[in-house]
Amino acid sequence: MYVIRPIEECDNAFLATIVRKNLERFHLYIPGTAYFASELDFLSTFYDVGTEKQGCLVVSDESSTAFGGVVIAEIPRHQGLCGDTETVSG
Fold it and tell me: Measured in Å, how far apart are the chain's first and last C-alpha atoms?
């Protein structure tokens, strides 16, 4: 049986490895990506900021071994980003 739960400190290294390996797979291990972000190694701290607008959930088994995760966060609007109504309609 799988469990969906908030990220814990013990998940940090595993999730950082998943992200980095996937960026490597697509040759995106370049400056400016999450690959080099120091926060990637401390996701449990980074997403424990007391806001309801972001969080990190982990899929694990009953023994709390993580298999994957997802980050949900509000992204500030910046002109030129996908979904920017001025860019899309203008």
Answer: 49
